[in-house]
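stage 2 :: seqdesign
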């Protein structure tokens, strides 16, 4: 029924300024949307727009992403981010968008979900910046005393990351992104790397 309503309202093609208002309105609903309803809306509102990006998203579209992800980031990641990661032909704009979402919009548990999704697909040079963005987020912003607020990766996810990087070493040996990523892992998690 929700898919039919979205189709009737033409939400997948509505102007972006209308999309922003609709996403703000969604946040006012009580009770919150169910996971399934949020996933359907993520697909209807964003999937086509994201997969067709050939230039950076507009400020309206970024505002809509930020608004939707402030409450429904898990369904967004499961539907939209997963589709970007599964499509090897997706361009640089989609990768940049996922990096920006990781750095600015997603909650810590959704950031970890993005990393687990990346590690489920064959790691390519195109996806390495996404892992780098996750690690940058894990290091967190500097606190006034000079320390960093760190969001720690769960041990299983960290072990999977290290294992994946080791397995992909021969295929990505000439990649500058791979070298940067391995250096970042060794620097940020030196106490955990044995």
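stage 2 :: out
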């Amino acid at each position: 029924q929700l898919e039919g309503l979205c189709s009737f309202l033409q939400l997948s093609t509505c102007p972006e300024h209308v999309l922003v208002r609709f996403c703000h309105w969604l946040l006012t609903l009580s009770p919150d949307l169910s996971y399934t309803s949020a996933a359907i809306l993520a697909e209807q509102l964003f999937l086509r727009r994201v997969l067709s990006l050939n230039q950076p998203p507009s400020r309206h579209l970024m505002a809509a992403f930020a608004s939707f992800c402030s409450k429904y980031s898990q369904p967004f990641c499961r539907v939209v981010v997963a589709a970007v990661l599964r499509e090897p032909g997706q361009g640089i704009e989609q990768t940049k968008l996922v990096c920006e979402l990781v750095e600015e919009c997603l909650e810590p548990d959704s950031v970890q979900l993005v990393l687990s999704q990346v590690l489920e697909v064959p790691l390519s040079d195109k996806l390495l910046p996404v892992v780098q963005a996750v690690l940058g987020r894990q290091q967190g912003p500097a606190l006034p005393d000079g320390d960093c607020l760190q969001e720690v990766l769960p041990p299983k996810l960290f072990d999977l990351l290290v294992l994946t990087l080791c397995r992909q070493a021969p295929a990505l040996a000439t990649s500058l992104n791979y070298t940067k990523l391995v250096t970042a892992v060794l620097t940020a998690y030196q106490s955990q790397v044995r």
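stage 3 :: structure notes
- The domain at 1-189 is CATH 1.25.40.480 (Serine Threonine Protein Phosphatase 5, Tetratricopeptide repeat).
- The chain is about 65% helix and 0% strand.
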